[in-house]
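Anyone have tokens for DHA2 family efflux MFS transporter permease subunit? Sequence:
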Amino acid sequence: MKSQAEVAPDKLDATVLKIAGVVVLGAIMSILDITVVSVALPTFQTEFDATYAEVAWTMTGYTLALATVIPLSGWAADRFGTKRLYMLAVLLFTLGSALCATADSIGQLIAFRVLQGLGGGMLMPLGMTIMTRAAGPARIGRLMAVLGIPMLLGPIGGPILGGWLIDAASWHWIFLINLPIGAIALVYAFFALPKDSAEPSESFDFIGMLMLSPGLALFLFGVSSLPETGTITATKVWATMLAGGLLVILFVLYSFRPRHPLLDLRLFRNRNLTIASVSLFVFIIAFMGAGLLFPSYFLQVRGESTLHAGLLMAPQGIGAMLTMPIAGTLADKIPVGRTVPFAMALIAAGFFTFTQVGTDTSYLLLCGSLFVMGLGMGGTMMPIMTSALRTLSSHDTARGSTLVNILQQIGSSAGAATMSVILTSQLNGSTPIPGLNDPGTGEPITEASAAIAVQHGAQIPLPPDVLSRGLAFVADSFATTFWVGFVLVLLTFIPIAFLPRKRAASPLVVSDDVRDLGGDKPAPATMIH
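Reply: yep, here.
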């Protein structure tokens, strides 16, 4: 029996591109929604008369729903088929979006965001599974590059789109815009996605689910609470992180026992998957965590509007769009261990500029650095994902993509929380202004917090020298935080050094006819080292 790699043409044909279009639509909805909502948090505070801690749950609830449902994706894809499950995920996400637009209280909005997250959590792992099976190992790099476009452009386009919709219409439209996209995606998926066979013989791992999904949700809840509390010693943080971590550890110990575990950790016997997963995890923590603070610098230090901050981030997306198709083609022809280090060097070079930011750093220099980082981003993330999935059998692809997406979710949450805590702790060291207290809490207002408030239009009578000192302190706080991110970027070179540097005679996907049904031993395969 010939493998898919042997029968698939070298170039992406029309059928594969149609399938890619479906997946990209779903990815655009899921990824854009995260960043679009992030810029609407101040609006939610005003509309629902809520505190920041309350409206932040519109983000946290979505994240926790993602963490809960992602582990189920691999089993569900095998059990019900990827086409039906993908359409269900699009439907849930679209329905959740419609309900979010009707919310008249912050509690309702949070509940509907959870429903959105249940659908959104399945879109990415299912999309990766569908595309990997459609392309085969010989073309997975080029196809993953297509999927990578919305993944990299989401953090850039989200603030631009969100700021424009809120200014031009109302906050409801950041959710309503998903309705026509979701409807198109459903119809498109029905006609474009091929029918696939379900495998009802696999039993569902209820014990694993009771450990892994709550464990991930509790752990990420604790991590997400770090910026709010400012310290890991807060009970809300350490207790939930400890409980979640213990449940995840118990799951890891348990998962090698059942024949069909919820998350198949036996896949980590695949050297490519393991090294690529570690590389991706460290990279996500390093870049995504600090990368979320780039727009914040433009907002808080330079006093830009949300829309302008989003536009200033555009060079990063342009750079990524230029290199991503090239990197996808190269990933199918050259081992990623030979290309990714050069792309990471571009990221490190561009990132270094942000460790030197001040109150008047040249926009030309910053935008040029973002463009260079974008060039590196386009040649890093998707090739690493390609390396992770290309040696898996078609049966294992769903579970492999689930593993990769869980690591992405944990890494992204941990990175964002860590960088936010570092920045907050730096800002808290600012000098209090004598006689100026917060009317709500009674706490003294610092020069840094007053300067940030003035940049956003607050009417606080600050002497010019105090405003100047406050803004300089805020800029220094960002620079220190970016130094931490820069060091983490450099640490990413360690796992990347172990990515495959040699090309096998031919890429091989293990036939479903010869895979090990017992689950106790890895299926025989020629690995790409």
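Residues 4-195+210-430+472-496 form a domain with the Growth Hormone; Chain: A; fold (CATH 1.20.1250.20).
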